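Quick illustration for those who missed Monday's session on complexes.
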Amino acid sequence: MNRIQNAFQQDKKLLNIYFTAGYPQLESTVPILRALADAGADVIEIGVPFSDPLADGPVIQASSSVALQNGMNMRVLFGQLKDVREQVPNTPILLMGYLNPVMQFGVENFCREAAAAGVDGVILPDLPLDDYVAEYQDIFRRHNLRPVFLITPQTAPERIRRIDELTESFLYLVSGPGTTGGANTQAEGVQEAYFQRISDMNLRNPRLVGFGISDKQSFDAACQHAEGAIIGSALIKALEGTDDAPAAAAAFVSSIIK
Amino acid sequence: MTITPTYQQPTERGYYGQFGGAFIPEMLYPNVEELRQQYLSIMAEPAFQQEYQQLLRDYVGRPTPLFEAKRLSAKYNTRVFLKREDLCHTGAHKVNNTVGQILLARRLGKTRIIAETGAGQHGVATATVCALMGMECIVYMGEVDMERQKPNVYRMRLLGAEVRPASSGSKTLKDATNEAIRDWISNPVDTHYIIGSVVGPHPYPDLVARLQAVISEEMRKQLLEKTGSELPQYVVACVGGGSNAAGAFYHFLEDPEVKLVAVEAAGHGVHSGHSAATSVLGKPGIIHGARTLLMQDEDGQITEPYSLSAGLDYPGIGPLHAFLADAGRAQFISVTDDDALKAVVECSRLEGIIPALETAHALAVLDRIGAGPDDVVVINLSGRGDKDLETYIQQDLM
Ligand SMILES: Cc1ncc(COP(=O)(O)O)c(C=O)c1O
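Prediction with pyridoxal-5'-phosphate bound:
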């Protein structure tokens, strides 16, 4: 059993926090990671910044460009993460980013470095399922990295089943139409019906709900239909303009799971 | 049976050699997949073809003339023909694509149209067909481009479209495309995205190439009439994303004796750090859902391109063009801002045709392709220069 699957053995709803590597300062990555874990985040996604993040809203876009200006890149990130498991031994860590920087770094190199750092999973929203199966699956498996795929309200049932079969971690349920950080603008009941529909499929992997979860209220609401939820933009907003980012990150986690 | 891959036809998954594909987040998958499954069958329907052909004739004004440019021919000692896409309704080739895509969107049951635009020509062409069909239209345009192509912003608004500024990155075409894609992610059910060039995830590059192919279809007939042969020695077109070039090349792709010349924007000079010459500066990478040649740094971050011309100011090229460059089927040449501006004046004074700044890049290579006195050179005159008057005044061309 891997760290991700272990985390889901706990008898509670999981809080998964996303933050952007190298934001607000280049050296913030590991201190924030550790503060999040210590404060009780159950799963952590480290965003690998990209110049043109298509699935992201303005908050994560802005944090990505600051991180890039700070000098963040794959080599710097893996350098920062070298001894991270000494500080954060058990919390599952995933890398989330876009395919092009991974391709340029080399998929094999990326997986080897990630595995060496103790990373458990990878989320690449623009990696097509078929390409994953044809070209990436073997490499991921060899390095014991779990892919996580997104499911949206428009994903067809047979495709959801296929994603479930390719997954040994969790399913990322995108809460509704929109990029990261957007508010839920769906008519009442629409989102619940979608979550219920997925729930009724009796999938083998647990589900985390993401996109647009911003506070305790929306976290608790999402958790009614899933094993937990993912927060990104709201955490990054909480880091804006602070001079103690780790403390702000910890305080944010406490505000969700108090 | 194995199908021999051709330049015209990508594989079922949208690959031209190693270039193409559909690298999109799951949120876009249902829309792009629906389009992939349906575009060929919808376009083959007789009713679609009839409506499309009728609009091309009666609304766009096709066929566009093939004009023998005698004074340019005399100056460069070769036989120059201009394919007059500038005479299309709205002033550029872009409308060939939007007429086809709006008919497709209606058949897919979509009610809301989004588009990106650089020079504003694709935005205007999209706003135009949306007005014609009574559909809601939102056009994303980089803030820098809104400033340098102001007349087109007003035209779009007059046509009833909403123009939304893209203010991230270099505030140009790439960023407008990012915003259009994000809009589509947020509106997956009722919206069709009319991409303006042969870029984006499969099936867009093939879809747009097919809709622009009418340009070379007409050229062949017109050349036969005017020169006695369907085949010229050279076809020249500028490449931003590459839609007018794809249309001008399309029906010559499988005729190796026809030399295809793709002209990119060199900006201040290919290696000046201010350029959009993707075929020279790019390496394989992913932009807007396609694997293609892409200007990027060693970490895979997309670099900001530069060209005075908004329509060529893009860090990638369509996957078909990346393949043509790779395979050596097309020759890629790049032209600086200054040389393009000289070509604007030259074409205006010698032929009485004021070209768009994008088009002027194609006009600027006549002395660089080695064409002889007996050769026939067709230049795709992709658009007219009205939208660029302010730039031409600022650059002191008078
Ligand atoms: C007149 C004209 N020509 C060419 C282009 C470049 O686009 P493409 O390379 O897709 O033909 C544009 C784009 O705006 C244009 O307006």
